[in-house]
Amino acid sequence: MGLEELGLDAQEEAVYRALVARPFVTAEELGGAGTRAVLEALVERGLASRETDGGERYAPAPPALALGAELAAHRARLGRAEAAVAELADAYRTGGLARAQRELVEVLEGRELIRRRFLQVRLAAEKSIDLLVTGGPRGTGVGEEARERTVAVRGVHTRGVVDRGFLNEPGAPERLAESLGGEGGGGGEVRFVEEIPLRLMICDDERAMLPLGGVGDEVDPCVVLRGGLVNVARALFEATWERARPYVEPHFEIGALDARILRLLLAGHTDAAVAGKLDLSARTVQRRIQALMRQAGVTTRIQLGWHARHQEWV
């Protein structure tokens, strides 16, 4: 058998094959009364002809001619079906990729939308928030507003790495203490590096948020990462955390202003640059440095720097 795909049932195919093998036979010679009805059906379909000369005999139509048209039509239908299946498969694949992309990566544009999503992601944290903070506080998630400093759920542990660009901003140490000093009672750790690769926030190892522009002042647009992509952000944070050194609050032996002066000096700033950043005169900065040297019992700035580190003044 094998002609079912062309529309012949098993009985019709058997009779047609017998007729091809024995052309010009009567229905009785081919199989009896039941065969006549099948032969008539083959005649109707153009697969056989009825000869009346010398008795009612049946002859097969040439298979290539009789079945060729049906075979071509079948191939055309099959081709259309294959094309439809391919189109559906492509649509399914494209739709699946789009769904996966929407689930894994969310692109945000517009400062208000970014701020709102930042708060939503941070509010959703239940266990941990890890931050890389650089530059000014705007858009970094540190000290932007009072409500942003208190959004973490109780028990959330926070780790933050800040760089010199952030610490040079007016009031940065105070904002840092408020924002990372243990949100919601969860406790916090802060470390310092000279330069942050990019701004970043990771919540519960499930969501990460970062600006597409990297470390620039502007944070529009941003992306929110989910799923396996968070692992990439996690690796970046951990590498930065490992090379960072602990950030300590001003020592009880010195004031907050003197601690800021020491940090800026240790970061390589000149007296004039320190004065400009702290809105002081260069002479005031020099006087305070001299006072710190006397307090430390040293005679050079290099010794002062060593003493500040050793005594954990900064």
By CATH's scheme, which homologous superfamily of the largest domain applies?
A: Endonuclease Chain A
Q: Radius of gyration from the CA trace?
A: 42 Å
* SSE sequence, one letter per element: HHHEEHEHEEHHEEEEHEHHHH
CATH class of the largest domain: Alpha Beta
The unreliable regions are 137-153, 180-186
**CATH architecture heading of the largest domain:** 2-Layer Sandwich
- Count of helical regions: 12
Shape: rod-shaped
Strand count: 10
Task: Determine the mean pLDDT.
Answer: 76
**How much helicity do the residues have?**
40-55%
What are the salient characteristics of this protein?
single chain; 314 residues; alpha+beta; Arc Repressor Mutant, subunit A; Endonuclease, Chain A; 4 domains; two-stranded antiparallel sheet; 12 helices; 10 strands; 49% helix; rod-shaped; Tscrpt_reg_LuxR_C; Sig_transdc_resp-reg_C-effctor
What do you see in this structure?
- By secondary structure, this protein is an alpha+beta fold.
- It has four domains: 4-61, Winged helix-like DNA-binding domain superfamily/Winged helix DNA-binding domain (Arc Repressor Mutant, subunit A, Orthogonal Bundle); 65-106; 109-246, Endonuclease Chain A (Endonuclease, Chain A, 2-Layer Sandwich), CATH 3.30.870.10; 256-310, Arc Repressor Mutant, subunit A (Orthogonal Bundle).
- 49% of the residues lie in helices and 15% in strands.
- It is built from twelve helices and ten strands.
- The protein has an eight-stranded mixed sheet, sandwiched between helices. Strands 1-2 form a two-stranded antiparallel ribbon.
- A hairpin with a 5-residue loop joins strand 1 and strand 2 (57-60).
- The longest helix is centred in the N-terminal third of the chain and has 42 residues, at 63-104.
- The model is unreliable at 137-153 and 180-186 (pLDDT under 50).
